[in-house]
Amino acid sequence: MLVVEDERDIAFPLVRTLEREGYDVAWVGTGREVLDVVGRDPSDVVILDLSLPDMDGLDVCRSLRDTGYDGAIMIVTARTGELDRVVGLDSGADDYLTKPFGLAELQARVRALLRRTRVHDHTGRADASALRLDVEARRVYAGESEIKLTSKEFDVLSVLEAHRDKVVPRGRLMSEVWDENWYGSTKTLDVTIGRLRQKLEQAGLPDRVVAVRGVGFRLEHTLPAP
């Protein structure tokens, strides 16, 4: 993974966070360095700031695509206008995150990008077993097929996905999905989890919601049986 950010106070915590998640992370601060590094050793994901000292990040994005780079590009920038997002995506970016942003959200988006780029074969067809969340549209897909979820099912899955492979406490799910003033039975959460599990399984997804007794739930990817 390659982080492209010229401000050390932004780049340093970002790199450390990604490294703690187990990613092999390189860091550069100029557009020309990006093209040199990717040319020698293509990364799965490039996290690209637009305001670089030597080149506009959009030009870097276009250059990467023009030279055949087919990994994921996430633009991270303070430019917040709709036109800026449109231009960024049209320049070849796969995702667009505006500053300031939470590290947990960035990590979730990185995981989503990695799944998206790793579930295509050489023909470019999507693997039917890939889970994908479109948070803005509130839609969930197994490959190219949409999974119909209720509002609460989607909210629970979104929280679990944002913390994939980590246990999310029951109390946190209740407060984030229902709200901290919910006085109903926590069985509501168990019923929602049960329906969500059933729908993921029916869609043929290898992703499972695992209960950790006395603590909470974890979304994880299960390997196929040998």
TrEMBL record:
Q: Which UniProt keywords apply?
A: DNA-binding, Phosphoprotein, Two-component regulatory system
**All residue ranges annotated as the OmpR/PhoB-type domain in the record:** 123-221
Q: Which GO terms describe its biological process?
A: regulation of DNA-templated transcription
Q: Which residues does the record list as 4-aspartylphosphate (modified residue)?
A: 49
Q: Which Pfam families match?
A: Response_reg, Trans_reg_C
Q: Name one GO cellular component term.
A: protein-DNA complex
- Its Gene Ontology molecular function terms? phosphorelay response regulator activity; transcription cis-regulatory region binding
* DNA-binding residues: 123-221
Residues of the Response regulatory domain:
1-114
Query: PROSITE patterns from the xrefs?
Result: OMPR_PHOB, RESPONSE_REGULATORY
Q: Which InterPro entries match?
A: CheY-like_superfamily, OmpR/PhoB-type_DNA-bd, Sig_transdc_resp-reg_receiver, WalR-like, WH-like_DNA-bd_sf
Record SMART domains: REC (SM00448), Trans_reg_C (SM00862)
Does Heme count among this protein's keywords? no
- Give the protein name, as stated in the record: Response regulator transcription factor
